Protein backbone atom coordinates (compact mmCIF):
# COMPACT_ATOMS: atom_id res chain seq x y z
CA UNK A 1 0.00 0.00 0.00
CA UNK A 2 1.36 3.45 -0.97
CA UNK A 3 1.72 6.46 1.35
CA UNK A 4 -1.10 8.11 -0.62
CA UNK A 5 -3.41 5.17 0.04
CA UNK A 6 -2.60 5.24 3.79
CA UNK A 7 -3.75 8.87 4.01
CA UNK A 8 -6.98 8.58 1.95
CA UNK A 9 -10.37 7.02 2.78
CA UNK A 10 -11.34 3.93 0.74
CA UNK A 11 -13.80 5.90 -1.47
CA UNK A 12 -11.15 8.50 -2.30
CA UNK A 13 -8.64 5.74 -3.03
CA UNK A 14 -11.03 4.31 -5.67
CA UNK A 15 -11.62 7.72 -7.27
CA UNK A 16 -7.91 8.49 -7.28
CA UNK A 17 -7.13 5.10 -8.88
CA UNK A 18 -9.70 5.68 -11.63
CA UNK A 19 -8.25 9.13 -12.33
CA UNK A 20 -4.72 7.76 -12.49
CA UNK A 21 -5.77 5.06 -14.96
CA UNK A 22 -7.70 7.64 -17.02
CA UNK A 23 -4.69 9.96 -17.17
CA UNK A 24 -2.41 7.07 -18.10
CA UNK A 25 -4.74 6.17 -20.98
CA UNK A 26 -4.75 9.78 -22.14
CA UNK A 27 -0.97 9.84 -22.16
CA UNK A 28 -0.74 6.55 -24.04
CA UNK A 29 -3.30 7.74 -26.60
CA UNK A 30 -1.33 10.94 -27.18
CA UNK A 31 1.86 8.96 -27.68
CA UNK A 32 0.34 6.47 -30.10
CA UNK A 33 1.56 6.51 -33.69
CA UNK A 34 -0.42 7.57 -36.72
CA UNK A 35 -1.34 5.00 -39.37
CA UNK A 36 -1.47 5.76 -43.10
CA UNK A 37 -2.70 2.71 -45.01
CA UNK A 38 -2.46 3.11 -48.80
CA UNK A 39 -4.25 0.67 -51.11
CA UNK A 40 -4.03 0.46 -54.90
CA UNK A 41 -6.86 -1.25 -56.78
CA UNK A 42 -5.40 -4.10 -58.90
CA UNK A 43 -1.58 -4.02 -59.03
CA UNK A 44 0.93 -6.78 -59.54
CA UNK A 45 4.10 -6.41 -57.48
CA UNK A 46 6.09 -7.05 -60.66
CA UNK A 47 4.94 -3.72 -62.11
CA UNK A 48 7.28 -1.98 -59.65
CA UNK A 49 11.06 -1.70 -60.05
CA UNK A 50 11.62 -2.91 -56.49
CA UNK A 51 10.22 -6.27 -57.61
CA UNK A 52 11.27 -6.16 -61.28
CA UNK A 53 14.32 -3.95 -61.96
CA UNK A 54 13.56 -4.11 -65.70
CA UNK A 55 10.15 -2.49 -65.29
CA UNK A 56 9.66 0.83 -67.10
CA UNK A 57 7.25 2.10 -64.46
CA UNK A 58 8.64 5.13 -62.63
CA UNK A 59 7.45 5.55 -59.04
CA UNK A 60 10.07 7.70 -57.27
CA UNK A 61 7.95 8.25 -54.15
CA UNK A 62 7.40 4.52 -53.63
CA UNK A 63 11.05 3.86 -54.44
CA UNK A 64 12.10 6.29 -51.69
CA UNK A 65 9.60 4.70 -49.30
CA UNK A 66 11.07 1.29 -50.11
CA UNK A 67 14.66 2.47 -49.63
CA UNK A 68 13.83 3.95 -46.23
CA UNK A 69 11.54 1.14 -45.08
CA UNK A 70 10.95 -2.57 -45.53
CA UNK A 71 9.91 -4.36 -48.73
CA UNK A 72 8.09 -7.70 -48.42
CA UNK A 73 8.78 -10.44 -50.96
CA UNK A 74 6.13 -12.73 -49.50
CA UNK A 75 2.88 -10.75 -49.13
CA UNK A 76 -0.33 -12.38 -50.37
CA UNK A 77 -4.09 -11.97 -50.41
CA UNK A 78 -5.68 -15.24 -49.33
CA UNK A 79 -8.07 -15.57 -52.24
CA UNK A 80 -11.65 -15.16 -53.35
CA UNK A 81 -15.00 -16.89 -53.72
CA UNK A 82 -16.10 -14.16 -56.15
CA UNK A 83 -15.07 -12.92 -59.57
CA UNK A 84 -14.82 -9.53 -57.87
CA UNK A 85 -11.67 -10.59 -56.02
CA UNK A 86 -11.42 -7.19 -54.33
CA UNK A 87 -14.59 -7.90 -52.31
CA UNK A 88 -13.28 -10.69 -50.07
CA UNK A 89 -9.80 -9.12 -50.08
CA UNK A 90 -11.15 -5.91 -48.57
CA UNK A 91 -13.34 -7.84 -46.14
CA UNK A 92 -10.20 -9.58 -44.89
CA UNK A 93 -8.26 -6.32 -44.60
CA UNK A 94 -11.03 -4.67 -42.61
CA UNK A 95 -11.82 -7.59 -40.29
CA UNK A 96 -8.49 -9.40 -40.01
CA UNK A 97 -10.32 -12.66 -40.69
CA UNK A 98 -9.56 -15.54 -43.06
CA UNK A 99 -11.31 -16.19 -46.37
CA UNK A 100 -13.97 -18.63 -45.20
CA UNK A 101 -14.75 -16.65 -42.05
CA UNK A 102 -15.96 -13.42 -43.64
CA UNK A 103 -19.18 -14.14 -45.51
CA UNK A 104 -21.81 -16.83 -45.40
CA UNK A 105 -22.44 -16.54 -49.11
CA UNK A 106 -19.04 -18.11 -49.56
CA UNK A 107 -20.37 -21.36 -48.13
CA UNK A 108 -23.21 -22.91 -50.19
CA UNK A 109 -26.07 -24.29 -48.11
CA UNK A 110 -25.54 -27.81 -49.44
CA UNK A 111 -21.92 -27.73 -48.24
CA UNK A 112 -22.44 -26.28 -44.76
CA UNK A 113 -22.08 -28.60 -41.82
CA UNK A 114 -25.32 -30.45 -41.24
CA UNK A 115 -27.39 -28.64 -38.64
CA UNK A 116 -24.88 -25.77 -38.30
CA UNK A 117 -26.32 -22.24 -38.12
CA UNK A 118 -25.60 -19.90 -41.01
CA UNK A 119 -23.41 -17.74 -38.79
CA UNK A 120 -21.04 -20.57 -37.86
CA UNK A 121 -17.96 -18.74 -39.03
CA UNK A 122 -19.11 -15.09 -39.10
CA UNK A 123 -19.78 -13.12 -35.88
CA UNK A 124 -23.10 -11.27 -35.99
CA UNK A 125 -21.49 -8.03 -34.80
CA UNK A 126 -18.47 -8.23 -37.10
CA UNK A 127 -18.67 -4.58 -38.32
CA UNK A 128 -18.14 -3.49 -34.71
CA UNK A 129 -14.88 -5.45 -34.63
CA UNK A 130 -13.36 -4.00 -37.80
CA UNK A 131 -10.55 -1.54 -38.45
CA UNK A 132 -12.20 1.85 -37.97
CA UNK A 133 -14.45 0.71 -35.11
CA UNK A 134 -11.46 -0.65 -33.17
CA UNK A 135 -9.41 2.52 -33.66
CA UNK A 136 -12.36 4.81 -32.91
CA UNK A 137 -12.68 3.15 -29.51
CA UNK A 138 -8.96 3.69 -28.91
CA UNK A 139 -9.27 7.46 -29.38
CA UNK A 140 -8.08 7.68 -32.98
CA UNK A 141 -9.49 10.01 -35.62
CA UNK A 142 -10.40 7.72 -38.53
CA UNK A 143 -10.66 8.85 -42.14
CA UNK A 144 -11.29 6.94 -45.35
CA UNK A 145 -11.30 7.64 -49.07
CA UNK A 146 -11.61 4.88 -51.66
CA UNK A 147 -13.70 3.57 -54.53
CA UNK A 148 -17.35 2.70 -54.02
CA UNK A 149 -18.56 -0.89 -53.95
CA UNK A 150 -16.90 -4.31 -53.90
CA UNK A 151 -15.96 -3.83 -50.28
CA UNK A 152 -17.20 -4.30 -46.71
CA UNK A 153 -19.83 -1.60 -46.33
CA UNK A 154 -20.58 -2.37 -42.68
CA UNK A 155 -16.91 -1.76 -41.85
CA UNK A 156 -16.58 1.27 -44.11
CA UNK A 157 -19.42 3.06 -42.31
CA UNK A 158 -17.41 3.07 -39.09
CA UNK A 159 -14.92 5.68 -40.34
CA UNK A 160 -15.80 9.03 -38.79
CA UNK A 161 -14.74 10.89 -41.95
CA UNK A 162 -15.52 9.18 -45.23
CA UNK A 163 -15.29 10.30 -48.85
CA UNK A 164 -15.78 7.34 -51.20
CA UNK A 165 -16.18 7.65 -54.95
CA UNK A 166 -14.96 5.61 -57.92
CA UNK A 167 -12.44 7.75 -59.80
CA UNK A 168 -10.93 6.07 -62.87
CA UNK A 169 -10.76 9.02 -65.23
CA UNK A 170 -7.88 10.93 -66.75
CA UNK A 171 -8.27 14.31 -65.05
CA UNK A 172 -7.65 15.65 -61.55
CA UNK A 173 -11.35 15.59 -60.69
CA UNK A 174 -12.05 12.19 -62.22
CA UNK A 175 -8.83 10.37 -61.34
CA UNK A 176 -6.47 9.58 -58.49
CA UNK A 177 -5.86 13.22 -57.53
CA UNK A 178 -9.42 13.33 -56.14
CA UNK A 179 -8.58 10.72 -53.51
CA UNK A 180 -5.43 12.61 -52.51
CA UNK A 181 -7.47 15.80 -52.24
CA UNK A 182 -9.76 14.16 -49.67
CA UNK A 183 -6.79 13.16 -47.50
CA UNK A 184 -5.25 16.62 -47.82
CA UNK A 185 -8.56 18.22 -46.84
CA UNK A 186 -8.65 16.06 -43.72
CA UNK A 187 -5.05 16.97 -42.84
CA UNK A 188 -5.67 20.68 -43.44
CA UNK A 189 -8.66 20.61 -41.09
CA UNK A 190 -6.58 18.76 -38.52
CA UNK A 191 -3.82 21.35 -38.77
CA UNK A 192 -6.25 24.26 -38.52
CA UNK A 193 -7.97 22.86 -35.41
CA UNK A 194 -4.64 21.82 -33.85
CA UNK A 195 -6.05 18.33 -33.39
CA UNK A 196 -3.52 16.20 -31.48
CA UNK A 197 -5.39 12.88 -31.59
CA UNK A 198 -3.58 10.08 -33.42
CA UNK A 199 -5.10 9.30 -36.82
CA UNK A 200 -5.83 6.26 -38.95
CA UNK A 201 -6.16 7.16 -42.64
CA UNK A 202 -7.34 4.56 -45.16
CA UNK A 203 -6.05 6.06 -48.42
CA UNK A 204 -7.51 3.96 -51.23
CA UNK A 205 -7.33 4.54 -54.98
CA UNK A 206 -9.69 3.49 -57.78
CA UNK A 207 -6.79 2.92 -60.21
CA UNK A 208 -4.99 1.14 -61.82
CA UNK A 209 -8.19 -0.97 -62.11
CA UNK A 210 -9.68 -0.81 -65.59
CA UNK A 211 -10.70 1.15 -67.50
CA UNK A 212 -7.16 2.46 -67.18
CA UNK A 213 -7.89 5.97 -68.40
CA UNK A 214 -4.65 7.73 -67.72
CA UNK A 215 -3.77 11.42 -67.90
CA UNK A 216 -2.63 12.48 -71.37
CA UNK A 217 0.97 13.33 -70.44
CA UNK A 218 1.54 10.06 -68.60
CA UNK A 219 -0.10 8.04 -71.36
CA UNK A 220 2.27 9.63 -73.88
CA UNK A 221 5.23 8.86 -71.61
CA UNK A 222 4.42 5.14 -71.80
CA UNK A 223 3.39 5.21 -75.47
CA UNK A 224 -0.18 4.25 -74.69
CA UNK A 225 -3.60 5.30 -75.95
CA UNK A 226 -7.05 4.85 -74.48
CA UNK A 227 -8.06 2.33 -77.14
CA UNK A 228 -11.84 1.97 -77.56
CA UNK A 229 -12.33 0.42 -81.00
CA UNK A 230 -13.04 -3.28 -80.61
CA UNK A 231 -12.58 -3.86 -84.35
CA UNK A 232 -8.96 -2.69 -84.45
CA UNK A 233 -5.73 -3.05 -82.50
CA UNK A 234 -3.89 -0.21 -80.75
CA UNK A 235 -0.65 0.98 -82.40
CA UNK A 236 2.70 -0.35 -81.23
CA UNK A 237 5.03 2.28 -79.82
CA UNK A 238 8.70 2.09 -78.80
CA UNK A 239 7.86 3.84 -75.52
CA UNK A 240 5.49 1.08 -74.47
CA UNK A 241 6.61 -1.40 -71.79
CA UNK A 242 7.84 -4.71 -73.15
CA UNK A 243 5.80 -7.87 -72.80
CA UNK A 244 6.13 -9.63 -69.44
CA UNK A 245 8.71 -12.43 -69.56
CA UNK A 246 5.98 -14.94 -68.68
CA UNK A 247 3.64 -13.65 -71.37
CA UNK A 248 1.61 -16.15 -73.38
CA UNK A 249 -0.84 -15.53 -76.24
CA UNK A 250 -3.27 -17.92 -74.51
CA UNK A 251 -3.45 -19.91 -71.31
CA UNK A 252 -2.88 -23.62 -72.03
CA UNK A 253 -6.26 -24.65 -70.56
CA UNK A 254 -9.51 -22.95 -69.58
CA UNK A 255 -9.37 -20.99 -66.32
CA UNK A 256 -12.78 -22.30 -65.34
CA UNK A 257 -14.88 -19.13 -65.26
CA UNK A 258 -16.87 -18.89 -68.52
CA UNK A 259 -17.80 -15.37 -69.56
CA UNK A 260 -15.53 -13.84 -66.93
CA UNK A 261 -15.65 -10.07 -67.39
CA UNK A 262 -11.94 -9.52 -66.75
CA UNK A 263 -10.99 -12.00 -69.47
CA UNK A 264 -13.47 -11.05 -72.19
CA UNK A 265 -14.86 -7.51 -71.68
CA UNK A 266 -12.15 -5.15 -70.43
CA UNK A 267 -12.20 -2.03 -72.61
CA UNK A 268 -9.16 -1.89 -74.86
CA UNK A 269 -8.34 -5.59 -74.43
CA UNK A 270 -11.46 -7.73 -74.68
CA UNK A 271 -10.31 -11.24 -75.69
CA UNK A 272 -7.18 -10.05 -77.51
CA UNK A 273 -3.80 -11.18 -76.25
CA UNK A 274 -1.58 -9.96 -79.09
CA UNK A 275 1.61 -7.98 -78.47
CA UNK A 276 0.17 -4.58 -79.42
CA UNK A 277 -2.86 -4.96 -77.14
CA UNK A 278 -0.96 -6.17 -74.10
CA UNK A 279 1.87 -3.63 -74.37
CA UNK A 280 -0.61 -0.80 -74.79
CA UNK A 281 -2.65 -1.97 -71.81
CA UNK A 282 0.42 -2.23 -69.59
CA UNK A 283 1.36 1.28 -70.74
CA UNK A 284 -2.08 2.50 -69.66
CA UNK A 285 -1.66 0.75 -66.33
CA UNK A 286 1.76 2.31 -65.81
CA UNK A 287 0.36 5.77 -66.55
CA UNK A 288 -2.28 5.24 -63.85
CA UNK A 289 0.25 3.80 -61.39
CA UNK A 290 2.70 6.68 -61.80
CA UNK A 291 -0.15 9.07 -61.10
CA UNK A 292 -0.86 7.19 -57.86
CA UNK A 293 2.80 7.69 -56.94
CA UNK A 294 2.47 11.43 -57.57
CA UNK A 295 -0.60 11.66 -55.34
CA UNK A 296 1.06 9.74 -52.51
CA UNK A 297 3.92 12.23 -52.76
CA UNK A 298 1.52 15.13 -52.20
CA UNK A 299 0.19 13.56 -49.00
CA UNK A 300 3.63 12.66 -47.62
CA UNK A 301 4.86 16.20 -48.31
CA UNK A 302 1.95 17.58 -46.28
CA UNK A 303 2.60 15.22 -43.38
CA UNK A 304 6.23 16.24 -43.36
CA UNK A 305 5.31 19.94 -43.32
CA UNK A 306 2.99 19.28 -40.38
CA UNK A 307 5.76 17.49 -38.48
CA UNK A 308 3.66 14.28 -38.38
CA UNK A 309 5.64 12.07 -40.74
CA UNK A 310 8.16 10.76 -38.20
CA UNK A 311 5.40 9.37 -35.98
CA UNK A 312 3.46 7.78 -38.86
CA UNK A 313 3.53 4.18 -40.03
CA UNK A 314 3.04 4.10 -43.80
CA UNK A 315 1.77 0.93 -45.46
CA UNK A 316 1.60 0.59 -49.24
CA UNK A 317 -0.05 -2.40 -50.90
CA UNK A 318 -2.80 -3.51 -53.31
CA UNK A 319 -5.92 -5.60 -52.80
CA UNK A 320 -4.48 -8.25 -55.16
CA UNK A 321 -2.22 -8.59 -58.18
CA UNK A 322 -3.04 -8.72 -61.91
CA UNK A 323 -2.13 -10.74 -64.98
CA UNK A 324 -2.38 -8.43 -68.02
CA UNK A 325 -0.82 -10.87 -70.49
CA UNK A 326 1.11 -12.99 -68.05
CA UNK A 327 0.35 -16.69 -68.68
CA UNK A 328 -2.10 -15.57 -71.37
CA UNK A 329 -4.48 -14.21 -68.75
CA UNK A 330 -5.85 -10.71 -68.28
CA UNK A 331 -7.53 -10.54 -64.88
CA UNK A 332 -7.10 -11.24 -61.20
CA UNK A 333 -8.85 -14.60 -61.05
CA UNK A 334 -5.83 -16.90 -60.88
CA UNK A 335 -3.22 -18.05 -58.36
CA UNK A 336 0.04 -17.40 -60.18
CA UNK A 337 2.51 -15.25 -58.22
CA UNK A 338 1.82 -12.14 -60.33
CA UNK A 339 -1.78 -12.19 -59.09
CA UNK A 340 -1.80 -14.03 -55.77
CA UNK A 341 1.05 -11.87 -54.44
CA UNK A 342 0.75 -8.15 -53.69
CA UNK A 343 3.29 -5.33 -53.42
CA UNK A 344 3.95 -4.50 -49.78
CA UNK A 345 6.10 -1.72 -48.31
CA UNK A 346 6.17 -0.41 -44.73
CA UNK A 347 7.99 2.59 -43.28
CA UNK A 348 7.71 3.97 -39.76
CA UNK A 349 9.20 4.23 -36.28
CA UNK A 350 11.39 1.24 -35.53
CA UNK A 351 10.94 -0.37 -38.96
CA UNK A 352 14.24 -1.78 -40.22
CA UNK A 353 15.39 -0.86 -43.69
CA UNK A 354 15.73 -3.62 -46.27
CA UNK A 355 13.87 -6.62 -47.62
CA UNK A 356 12.19 -9.55 -45.97
CA UNK A 357 10.19 -12.59 -46.98
CA UNK A 358 7.46 -12.04 -44.41
CA UNK A 359 4.97 -14.69 -45.52
CA UNK A 360 2.07 -12.47 -44.57
CA UNK A 361 -1.52 -12.12 -45.74
CA UNK A 362 -3.31 -8.81 -46.20
CA UNK A 363 -5.58 -9.89 -43.36
CA UNK A 364 -2.56 -9.59 -41.03
CA UNK A 365 -2.52 -5.81 -41.43
CA UNK A 366 -5.24 -5.25 -38.82
CA UNK A 367 -3.54 -7.27 -36.11
CA UNK A 368 -0.24 -5.58 -36.89
CA UNK A 369 -1.44 -1.99 -36.75
CA UNK A 370 -3.22 -2.79 -33.48
CA UNK A 371 0.09 -4.14 -32.15
CA UNK A 372 2.00 -1.06 -33.32
CA UNK A 373 -0.59 1.25 -31.74
CA UNK A 374 -0.73 -0.63 -28.43
CA UNK A 375 -4.35 -1.66 -28.96
CA UNK A 376 -5.60 -5.07 -27.94
CA UNK A 377 -7.55 -6.46 -30.93
CA UNK A 378 -10.92 -8.14 -30.35
CA UNK A 379 -11.08 -11.94 -30.30
CA UNK A 380 -12.67 -11.94 -33.77
CA UNK A 381 -9.35 -10.83 -35.33
CA UNK A 382 -7.43 -13.80 -36.76
CA UNK A 383 -4.44 -11.75 -37.92
CA UNK A 384 -0.89 -12.66 -37.07
CA UNK A 385 1.01 -9.53 -36.17
CA UNK A 386 4.19 -9.14 -38.21
CA UNK A 387 5.63 -6.43 -35.98
CA UNK A 388 8.56 -8.74 -35.20
CA UNK A 389 9.34 -8.87 -38.93
CA UNK A 390 9.20 -5.09 -39.22
CA UNK A 391 11.64 -4.81 -36.34
CA UNK A 392 14.03 -7.29 -37.93
CA UNK A 393 13.55 -9.97 -35.28
CA UNK A 394 12.06 -12.53 -37.68
CA UNK A 395 12.10 -13.15 -41.41
CA UNK A 396 8.70 -14.84 -41.63
CA UNK A 397 5.58 -15.37 -39.53
CA UNK A 398 4.35 -18.43 -41.43
CA UNK A 399 5.81 -21.51 -43.05
CA UNK A 400 2.77 -22.29 -45.19
CA UNK A 401 0.61 -20.05 -47.39
CA UNK A 402 -2.81 -21.01 -48.81
CA UNK A 403 -4.65 -19.47 -51.75
CA UNK A 404 -8.08 -20.02 -53.28
CA UNK A 405 -10.17 -18.92 -56.22
CA UNK A 406 -13.66 -20.29 -56.81
CA UNK A 407 -15.60 -17.38 -58.23
CA UNK A 408 -16.39 -19.43 -61.32
CA UNK A 409 -17.12 -23.14 -61.62
CA UNK A 410 -16.50 -25.14 -58.46
CA UNK A 411 -14.41 -26.18 -56.66
CA UNK A 412 -12.12 -23.89 -58.64
CA UNK A 413 -8.41 -23.35 -57.97
CA UNK A 414 -6.31 -23.82 -54.85
CA UNK A 415 -2.68 -23.17 -54.09
CA UNK A 416 -0.27 -23.87 -51.30
CA UNK A 417 3.31 -22.67 -50.85
CA UNK A 418 6.02 -23.81 -48.46
CA UNK A 419 9.57 -22.59 -48.86
CA UNK A 420 10.52 -22.61 -52.54
CA UNK A 421 7.77 -25.06 -53.47
CA UNK A 422 4.32 -24.19 -54.75
CA UNK A 423 1.36 -26.29 -55.84
CA UNK A 424 -1.65 -25.09 -57.86
CA UNK A 425 -4.66 -27.32 -58.55
CA UNK A 426 -7.58 -26.75 -60.93
CA UNK A 427 -10.90 -28.61 -60.84
CA UNK A 428 -13.36 -26.66 -62.99
CA UNK A 429 -16.00 -26.89 -65.71
CA UNK A 430 -17.72 -29.88 -64.05
CA UNK A 431 -14.55 -31.92 -64.10
CA UNK A 432 -13.63 -31.17 -67.72
CA UNK A 433 -10.47 -29.39 -66.58
CA UNK A 434 -8.44 -31.05 -63.85
CA UNK A 435 -4.86 -29.88 -63.74
CA UNK A 436 -2.00 -29.87 -61.25
CA UNK A 437 1.05 -27.60 -61.33
CA UNK A 438 4.18 -27.92 -59.20
CA UNK A 439 6.81 -25.17 -59.25
CA UNK A 440 10.13 -24.58 -57.56
CA UNK A 441 9.99 -20.79 -57.28
CA UNK A 442 13.72 -20.47 -56.68
CA UNK A 443 14.50 -22.15 -60.00
CA UNK A 444 11.38 -20.97 -61.82
CA UNK A 445 10.20 -17.68 -60.27
CA UNK A 446 8.02 -16.84 -63.26
CA UNK A 447 6.17 -20.19 -63.07
CA UNK A 448 7.06 -20.82 -66.71
CA UNK A 449 5.28 -23.65 -68.52
CA UNK A 450 6.26 -25.73 -71.53
CA UNK A 451 4.27 -23.23 -73.64
CA UNK A 452 6.74 -20.50 -72.67
CA UNK A 453 9.45 -22.45 -74.49
CA UNK A 454 7.75 -22.06 -77.90
CA UNK A 455 9.87 -20.16 -80.43
CA UNK A 456 7.12 -17.63 -81.12
CA UNK A 457 6.81 -16.69 -77.45
CA UNK A 458 10.58 -16.51 -76.94
CA UNK A 459 10.83 -14.19 -79.93
CA UNK A 460 8.08 -11.93 -78.60
CA UNK A 461 9.24 -11.53 -75.02
CA UNK A 462 12.97 -11.65 -75.71
CA UNK A 463 13.76 -14.16 -72.96
CA UNK A 464 14.88 -17.75 -73.38
CA UNK A 465 13.51 -20.01 -70.62
CA UNK A 466 15.88 -22.50 -69.07
CA UNK A 467 15.17 -26.17 -69.69
CA UNK A 468 14.17 -26.92 -66.09
CA UNK A 469 11.74 -23.98 -65.84
CA UNK A 470 8.60 -26.08 -66.17
CA UNK A 471 5.61 -27.42 -64.33
CA UNK A 472 7.16 -30.37 -62.46
CA UNK A 473 3.95 -32.13 -61.41
CA UNK A 474 4.32 -34.92 -63.98
CA UNK A 475 8.07 -35.40 -63.50
CA UNK A 476 8.72 -38.73 -61.68
CA UNK A 477 11.72 -37.17 -59.90
CA UNK A 478 9.35 -34.99 -57.89
CA UNK A 479 6.73 -37.60 -57.04
CA UNK A 480 7.44 -37.42 -53.29
CA UNK A 481 7.47 -33.61 -53.27
CA UNK A 482 4.17 -33.59 -55.15
CA UNK A 483 2.60 -35.94 -52.61
CA UNK A 484 3.90 -33.78 -49.76
CA UNK A 485 2.44 -30.62 -51.25
CA UNK A 486 -0.88 -32.32 -52.03
CA UNK A 487 -1.18 -33.43 -48.39
CA UNK A 488 -0.23 -29.95 -47.21
CA UNK A 489 -2.91 -28.36 -49.37
CA UNK A 490 -5.63 -30.65 -48.03
CA UNK A 491 -4.48 -29.97 -44.48
CA UNK A 492 -4.75 -26.20 -45.02
CA UNK A 493 -8.16 -26.55 -46.67
CA UNK A 494 -9.45 -28.42 -43.62
CA UNK A 495 -7.82 -26.05 -41.13
CA UNK A 496 -9.30 -22.97 -42.78
CA UNK A 497 -12.78 -24.49 -43.23
CA UNK A 498 -12.61 -24.54 -47.03
CA UNK A 499 -15.99 -26.15 -47.86
CA UNK A 500 -14.88 -27.72 -51.15
CA UNK A 501 -12.78 -30.76 -52.08
CA UNK A 502 -11.02 -31.68 -55.33
CA UNK A 503 -11.51 -34.82 -57.40
CA UNK A 504 -8.53 -36.59 -55.87
CA UNK A 505 -9.17 -35.46 -52.28
CA UNK A 506 -12.38 -37.46 -51.84
CA UNK A 507 -10.76 -40.87 -51.41
Write up this protein.
Helices cover 31% and strands 16% of the residues. An eight-stranded mixed sheet has the order 6-5-7-1-8-9-2-10, sandwiched between helices. The chain folds into two domains: 1-31, no CATH class; 33-107 and 118-400, Alkaline Phosphatase, subunit A, CATH 3.40.720. The longest helix has 32 residues, at 275-306. It is α/β, with parallel strands linked by helices and 507 residues long. It has helices spanning 3-7, 10-31, 60-68, 86-95, 131-137, 153-156, 176-193, 216-221, 261-264, 275-306, 337-340, 364-373, 387-390, 455-461, 479-495, and strands at 34-41, 70-72, 75-76, 79-80, 141-146, 161-164, 199-208, 312-318, 344-347, 354-356, 360-361, 400-405, 412-418, 421-428, 433-440. It is built from 15 helices and 15 strands.
Amino acid sequence: MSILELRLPRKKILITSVLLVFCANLLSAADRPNILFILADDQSPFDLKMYDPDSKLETPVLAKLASEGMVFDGAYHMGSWSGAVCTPSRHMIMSGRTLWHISNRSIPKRLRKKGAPTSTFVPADLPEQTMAAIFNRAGYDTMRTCKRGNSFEGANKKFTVRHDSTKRGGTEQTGSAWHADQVLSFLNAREKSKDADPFLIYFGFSHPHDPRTGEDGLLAKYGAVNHKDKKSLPPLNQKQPQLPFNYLPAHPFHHGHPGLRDEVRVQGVWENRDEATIRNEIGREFACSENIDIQIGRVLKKLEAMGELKNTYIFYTADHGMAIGRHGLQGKQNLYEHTWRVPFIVKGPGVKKGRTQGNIYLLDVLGTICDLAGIKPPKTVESKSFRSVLEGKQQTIREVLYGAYCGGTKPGMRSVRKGDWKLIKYDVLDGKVRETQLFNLKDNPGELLKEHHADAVIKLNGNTPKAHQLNLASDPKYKEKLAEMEALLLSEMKRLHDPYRFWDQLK
